[in-house]
Design brief:
The complex is a heterotrimer of chains A (387), B (395) and C (231). Chain A has 387 residues and is α+β, with helices and mostly antiparallel strands. Chain A folds into 2 domains: 176 residues, no CATH class; 176 residues, no CATH class. In chain A, 56% of the residues lie in helices and 17% in strands. In chain A, helix 2 runs antiparallel to helix 10, helix 2 packs across helix 12 and helix 12 runs antiparallel to helix 13. The two termini of chain A are 27 Å apart. The two termini of chain B are 34 Å apart. Chain B contains 12 helices and 15 strands. In chain B, helix 11 packs antiparallel against helix 12. The relative contact order of chain B is 0.21. In chain C, helix 6 links the parallel strand 7 and strand 8. In chain C, the strands form 2 sheets. Chain C has a 6-stranded mixed beta sheet, with helices on both faces. Chain C has a 4-stranded antiparallel beta sheet with strand order 2-1-4-5, with no helix packed on it. In chain C, 32% of the residues lie in helices and 30% in strands. The chains are: A alpha+beta (387), B alpha+beta (395), C alpha/beta (231). Chains in contact: A-B, A-C. At the A-B interface, helix 2, helix 9 and helix 10 of A face helix 2, strand 4, strand 5, helix 9 and strand 14 of B.
Chain lengths: 387, 395, 231
């Protein structure tokens, strides 16, 4: 027997209470873990953006197109290293509900601007040569079980094919991976030229331009130059860093996300308060026992540590179990959510933060009773206990 | 029987009177109940508000025609010729000016959101007076309507609430075009209030749309009856259009938020389990606290049923107090709260949280359930407490 | 047995403030307890006998005067010193046994040994000895709630002697027991005093219990009223 055994015995003396307490903490941290991970996944686009990459979109809105001529004009500007363009295809596979991220791009420049896209040189050559070819992200290929050489029909909910219908046939020439694990490979790209030749309208329009600057310090200067060049034309531009663009896009989801997170965190803390209160009060019932321990010669600091240790242990047991369950939940949901939230990973910072809250819970709920135990006067304790 | 009732009354009054003595314990129970009720009401109010916005937008009387396969207004294109052909189709209501058909344009512009100060998408709809007439419930709340052929626009009340710079009388710039805001309109709180409206012809020319439109809305002769219209479209190969009622369209557009509401419900249910565990714990501790008191009463001859009822009553009182607190908090924080999110076609939908009386009823019922569940098992324990406990030392 | 002084109280006073009044329990109390003594302190309720016992055990401290134990002045000890001193020198027996409800008999007895540096094996041996002494070795694994009052009190006695203290303080040790069980407990205390040389101080209001002691003192209103030696 040692102090840990005493803590264990104290903790488990009322199994039902221990279970209920741990369960409430478990739930609180389950929700906390899952929701924070969800939130960080939503914000992750911002963190992954390259420093020197700029987005050029129509000033009116990014859904309004730009003329293709801008591609050459921007490419010629000082400070611009590489530039490429893309069109949103509004793609889906077989079922309009199975939306795909599909873009029509200028192949060579696209791969230069996005060094994150890693593709086998042989596959790359094949794709560059094949006008009807498609380059598919590894994640997407896995999701649908596509292999190189597969012929797949991709439909558009925006464009019509010249030959009628909204479906284009593509051949998968290559499957790309990301240079880091975080890079989202849940999309596919094909030749802009093929798109332009086969669609019925839209003319020589492109969706947006993406460019890299020679150096991040030139970002502001280049952005200003581009927007000034096209000012007062029929197509004014708005150039921003990729980071700022992603951030603005996420914020569009709106304060509804903020409100939900607010409500969840409020609930999280309230549950902790309720549980903490019960934990703290539970120790009060043991006033008599603590007095006996003191009479036997257990020192006050030692009792202090035991009381505090108990509440820390309970907080950690419930909390870590909840966090573990949140992890399992997220791993399970990962595949289903991959399309919307590619970076659904419970990062170390989330775990650290959650453990921090557990320790805080254990400390706050343990400190007051532990302090009371420290100060407990044996004589008054026995008088109260009636002994 | 009379004595049983008076017994129950005595025990109940005693338990409730002793609540302040167990202040912290009682507060924990109240708080647990409050948080469950508040979370549920918040999500219900959100769902309710969004539902109001989306469902009242779509009318059964109006059919929407979009290019085949276009899932949203933004993606669709229809030509002037197609509009002319549609005007001759059967099943469309007519007034003195002929069939009620509204060809419309739908482009997206940027506005600055008040809440974040960042750019967000707002739909700019091009339509004419027929389009406004078709939406029966349009009311100008300020200023006047736009004059056809000019750079004038009117602004929805929802846009006014959530975005900066659209006050009546001010000028706004989209791209190189400057627009004058000449009026504000309300459509009874539905999704159209999140839009800007201007003359369709002006938008055609500013946005290089030639003579094309994006959607056609028509008023149906018989509400919900698409049959004649559908047959007419099928018969003419030039009309590669999908037709659906406006109601069906907005319902499908609202799907995303429905997911959010489901997500909210799941979260509040799980959270409720956690809080319920807290409440149960509190009640068990409360019974343990008073074990001697209860046993003494039993020794005096009170029945165990009265001990049971007394504990249940105590739990109910605390849970209802929590329910009231939670409802009040939810009402204070959420009722009328303006929210906005990305809707179906990449545009902002502005809506309000709505706390209706039936939500309060739901909250109250939930509080009762919490009180009953968290009281029942501890009450059971109280009732079965052996009388001998009264004569033992404190545990 | 030589008359070696274990405890000496010199001019001890104890008072506390209740509301505006200062209530005095003892004033200028002198007392000597010798090693090997079995002393019963009797007196009516409120006579201060429990307070006196608490001061002897270093649980309560006097407001004035001196308490000497084995040549050390313990009333000047800090709390931490007193705690350590208690662990080494005193065994307590309470009226209501005060066993830890979540520990079995052996664990309850082992509790004071956590304060020593004994090895696991030594501890187990000590616990067994103590339990054998009180005749409860076969009940080692039983929980307090599974034992009678007399058995619980015997576990408490085992707990009081397991770390081999010089002095055992008992506060109404038979107050909660029937006559027959009480006699067993008292015989056991007598045995500890006679065969194991423990000094025992027992507070009681039961003359029959006091009759087991070698010496009885009567306390009334904070004063010893008469001294008598048991037959």
């Amino acid at each position: 027997m040692n102090d840990l055994y005493l803590i264990y015995k104290n903790m488990t003396r009322k199994p039902l209470r221990l279970f209920l307490t741990c369960f409430a903490i478990f739930i609180a941290f389950l929700i906390y873990g899952a929701v924070t991970t969800l939130k960080s996944a939503m914000d992750s686009g911002i963190d992954l953006a390259a420093d020197n990459r700029l987005m050029v979109v129509n000033r009116i809105n990014f859904t309004v197109p730009l003329p293709i001529a801008y591609f050459r004009k921007v490419a010629a500007m000082d400070g611009v290293k590489n530039v490429t363009h893309a069109n949103w295809f509004g793609g889906y596979y077989q079922d309009p509900k199975k939306q795909l991220v599909v873009m029509a791009v200028d192949p060579e420049s696209y791969l230069r601007v996005y060094p994150e896209v890693v593709v086998d040189p042989q596959q790359k050559q094949a794709w560059l040569r094949d006008r009807q070819g498609m380059l598919v992200g590894e994640k997407l290929a896995k999701l649908y079980g596509w292999k190189i050489g597969d012929k797949i029909p991709v439909s558009s909910n925006i464009f019509s094919h010249k030959d009628g219908g909204h479906t284009w046939d593509f051949v998968i020439d290559g499957i790309f991976t990301g240079n880091t694990e975080q890079y989202d490979t849940g999309y596919m790209v094909f030749h802009y030229k093929y798109f332009q030749e086969t669609q019925t309208f839209g003319g020589d329009n492109i969706g947006w331009l993406v460019l890299t600057t020679e150096d991040p310090s030139l970002n502001e200067q280049v952005a200003k130059k581009i927007d000034e060049t096209f000012a007062n034309s029929a197509f004014e531009t708005d150039t921003s860093t990729e980071k700022a663009f992603s951030k603005a896009f996420i914020e569009q989801v709106g304060n509804i996300g903020l409100i939900i997170f607010g409500v969840v965190f409020m609930a999280f803390f309230t549950i902790l308060v309720v549980v903490g209160n019960t934990m703290a009060l539970a120790v009060r019932e043991r006033t008599g026992e603590i007095a006996v321990l003191k009479t036997l010669g257990f020192s006050s600091p030692r009792i202090f540590k035991m009381v505090l240790g108990e509440s820390l242990l309970i907080a950690l047991i419930g909390g870590l179990a909840g966090l573990g369950a949140a992890h399992l939940l997220i791993e399970g949901a990962k595949a289903a959510m991959a399309q919307f939230l590619p970076n659904l990973v419970m990062g170390g910072d989330i775990v650290a933060q959650a453990v921090g809250f557990m320790l805080l819970l254990g400390l706050v709920t343990g400190l007051l009773p532990a302090f009371n135990a420290l100060r407990l006067n044996i004589v008054t304790a026995f008088n109260r206990g009636g002994a | 029987m009379g004595s049983l009732i008076s017994q129950i009354a005595t025990v109940t009054v005693m338990n409730i009177r002793s609540l302040p003595r167990r202040l912290w314990m009682s507060l924990a129970m109240v708080l647990a109940s409050a948080v469950v009720v508040a979370i549920l009401l918040a999500f219900l109010a959100m769902a309710k508000g969004f539902e109001t916005t989306m469902s009242s937008a779509g009318s059964d009387r109006v059919a929407m025609l979009m290019r085949e396969g276009a899932a949203a207004e933004l993606n669709s294109v229809v030509t002037r010729d197609q509009v002319n052909l549609v005007e001759d189709l059967p099943g469309i209501a007519s007034d003195k000016d002929g069939p009620v058909v509204s060809p419309e344009l739908y482009v997206i512009v940027d506005g600055i959101k008040k809440s974040t100060g960042t750019e967000a998408n707002i739909p700019l709809r091009g339509l004419d007076s027929r389009g406004m007439a078709l939406r029966g419930n349009v009311q100008l709340t300020r200023g006047r309507s736009f004059t056809p052929g000019t750079n004038e626009l009117i602004v929805g009340e929802g846009v006014l609430r959530e975005f900066d710079g659209f006050d009546v009388g001010s000028e706004v710039r989209f791209g190189k075009n400057t627009w004058r805001v000449v009026g504000a309109f309300s459509t009874g709180g539905n999704v159209f209030e999140s839009e800007l409206w201007a003359d369709a012809k002006v938008i055609q020319s500013h946005y290089n749309r030639g003579s094309s439109f994006q959607t056609i809305r028509v008023q149906l002769q018989k509400p919900g009856d698409l049959q004649p219209l559908q047959q007419g479209i099928d018969a003419d190969p030039r009309l590669n259009l999908d037709v659906q009622t406006e109601k069906a369209y907005f319902t499908s557009q609202g799907k995303q938020l429905q997911y959010m509401a489901i997500f909210g419900r799941v979260i509040s249910f799980i959270m409720a389990l956690g809080a319920l565990a807290g409440a149960l714990n509190t009640m068990y501790t409360s019974v343990a606290d008073r074990a001697r008191e209860i046993a003494t009463l039993r020794a005096l001859g009170f029945s165990n049923f009265s001990a049971f009822c007394g504990t249940i009553a105590e739990a109910l009182v605390l849970a209802i107090a929590g329910g009231l607190l939670g409802s009040a908090a939810a009402f204070l924080f959420f009722d009328g709260l303006n929210a906005s999110t990305l809707g179906g076609s990449f545009t902002q939908v502005v809506f309000r949280f709505e706390m209706s009386p039936e939500l309060f009823v739901q909250g109250a019922m939930l509080a009762l359930v919490i009180g009953f569940v968290s009281g029942f098992f501890p009450a059971w324990r109280a009732a079965r407490l052996p009388v001998i406990v009264a004569f033992r030392q404190t545990t | 047995m030589s008359e070696e002084v274990l405890f000496q109280l010199k001019g001890v006073s104890k008072s506390f403030v209740k509301g505006k009044e200062e209530i005095s329990i003892f004033d200028d109390l002198d007392m000597t307890i010798n090693r090997g003594e079995f002393l019963a302190i009797m007196g009516p309720s409120g006579s201060g006998k429990t307070t006196l016992l608490n001061m002897l055990g270093g649980v309560d401290q006097p407001t004035g005067g001196e308490i000497w134990f084995n040549g050390e002045r313990i009333d000047r000890f800090k709390e931490s010193q007193l705690t350590r001193w208690r662990a080494h020198n005193i065994g307590f027996i309470f009226q209501f046994y005060n066993l830890m409800p979540m520990l079995n008999a052996a664990r309850n007895v082992e509790l004071p040994l956590l304060l020593t540096n004994l090895s696991k094996a030594q501890r187990r041996a000590n616990v067994e000895t103590a339990l054998t002494l009180v005749g409860l070795n076969d009940r080692a694994k039983h929980m307090p709630s599974e034992m009678s009052g007399g058995q619980q009190q015997r576990v408490a006695i085992a707990r009081a002697i397991v770390s081999d203290p010089q002095l055992i303080l008992c506060d109404e040790p038979t107050g909660d027991l029937d006559r027959k069980t009480a006699d067993e407990i008292l015989e056991m205390l007598q045995l500890l005093n006679q065969d194991h040389g423990k000094t025992i101080v027992m507070v009681t209001h039961d003359p029959a219990a006091a009759s087991y002691a070698k010496k009885t003192v009567h306390l009334d209103k904070g004063k010893f009223v008469q001294r008598e030696v048991a037959a």
